[in-house]
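Subject: complex prediction, re-run

Hi both,

The earlier run crashed halfway through, so I resubmitted it with identical inputs.
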Amino acid sequence: MYQYDALDREMVADRAAEFRGQVARRLSGELTEDQFKPLRLMNGLYLQLHAYMLRVAIPYGALNPTQLRKLAGIGRTYDKGYGHFTTRQNLQFHWIKLRDTPDILDHLASVDMHAIQTSGNCIRNVTADPYAGATADEVDDPRVWAEVLRQWSSFHPEFSFLPRKFKFAITASPKDRTAARVHDIGLVMRQGRDGALGFEVIVGGGMGRTPYVGPTIREFLPVDQLLSYVEAILRVYNRHGRRDNKYKARIKILVAALGTEEFTRQVDAEWAKIGEGANLPEAEVARIRAAFAQTAFETLPTRSEAFEAARAATSGLARFARNNLKPHKRAGYTIVEISLKGIGETPGDASSEQMEVVADLGERYGQGDIRVTHEQNLVLPHIKLDDVPAVWAALKGAGIATPNVNLISDIIACPGLDYCALANARAISIAQNIAEKFRDQDRAEKVGELKIKISGCINACGHHHVGHIGILGVDKKGEEFYQLTLGGSGAEDASLGAMLGPALPYEKVAEAVDTLIEVYLRERKGDERFLDTFRRTGVAAFKEAVYADAH
Amino acid sequence: MKALTANRLSDGDVVFWNSGQWVERFADAQLFVDDDAAGPDAEAAGKAQSTVVIDVYLIDLIESEGFWAPLSYRERIRALGPTNHLHHGKQAEGGAMIEALQHAHGAARSTGRVNLIKRTK
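This time it finished cleanly. Structure:
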């Protein structure tokens, strides 16, 4: 993975030292809360319901074992022995004390980590395909370009006070695991007919109270033009994005207001002014690329006899292999996805012990490479098939071998009203109730791929708009109610879900999901996913079943 | 009835006002009669302690199992802890008062908090 140089280290250490002084001045009364709040937010520190929350940046979701062990240690020393992985591939600590934060930032800096640009109206952590560098279907390693964007956007003076926050996602695979089409800028790498690489540039997607699937404003941007082009986009946004209304300040509103054609025209005009000088020299791209070169692969047979024998002998491993292993580009290797969606557990939570087990496995079996997915899971991207039985056994021992990746209980849920100061309703316990209903793994596998995504308020941190089944918590005269949407997708076939009907009370939600599944199993043809069946049949049968006994 | 709540500056912990002091347990909170000026007076005094607490506001209470409990669900979660980790937060201590809060059914918006959000916009 990319290694910090002396300059990177100095910047992060300086920032931690600066925040130490700011915290001291706040505690002494030298700074008021109004003065201090923007400073703490620039360091990812929010006040939530029970305590402060510190959001730690994990650039494009990539961690080494030392970093993950450090996060585990911080969780144990300064939190309640756990951390929460988020849909931006970051990690949040939910029980942080302001007075401890300077020490925590020093700990993070000691392993080249920080909480910079995890809040505020700036370019946030760039997310990327968690299978980057491992999956067989990518045209390039998107981490190279995510790192280019990270370096370019870190402390970028022109883009530190945008009209609103700004999120990039980047993938180089036709199978989109980043929700690129619902980001401020989504970049999808493609290979041209002549073999050259370029990006499809999608701008103005987003969720929240005004969701959009972003339009493509350029079908093929040559990779070496990336920085000048995104600079042009950001300049148009910075100039014309609405600063008068927080709810209309995201770039999606600007793109929709101007129309794709006019927005693209303005970007192109700006791009022409910026010129080639803003692009990264080839040598620098090559330097960054070298940091991601995987050299430790062995030449192995495609089939591992040890793995096949273990799988045949152990049904639990067979089930895990069916659901949690994904094809690797190298023969004899596999991608192992670790579900943080244990039945009855909190989606995305990992205890310090679990983080340490994953760090150890990454170090021992996985070339020191660990990823976080935007679906709140972890990934060991380079595991030899021969080692899968040992990895599975260790995960099982730590309680994180749940074989449910992409199944109905692999649910995204925001922290919701249990933690978040903005939430209207709980999200976690809804996820737990649904997972409990589908505890029977045979039934879950029979249902197949199903993406349930739950948000506790309209800000949509739980990505409900793009859930095959989306669930939005609303406050109805102070009671928790939930609106269901069907047919959303955050993948390459992106779409926004359509409302099923009137909001349901808390205790009816899991039951309604169960009903939806029964309708799907009845209606599906062949190997259709829930999403495919819904798109073919429309909402009527689903709606009728859920609301049949409502009156 | 009302109580006065805030988050402590140094650690973010949920605290309640009692006679000029901030206490950690809802059970120890001072109660104010709805229209009594003592509530707003305490709120003003609490807000003046800006190096001790932040986000100071009054919350409405209802009766539950013979105790007073915050009316809004959000405020009960603040007084108890998250419902997904019952050993985290103040609820870990247990007892009749905690149970009364857990069983309380009133569910309305936290008006004090809504006002707070409006003010900070």
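The domain at 6-110 of chain A is CATH 3.90.480.20 (Sulfite Reductase Hemoprotein; domain 2).

- K.
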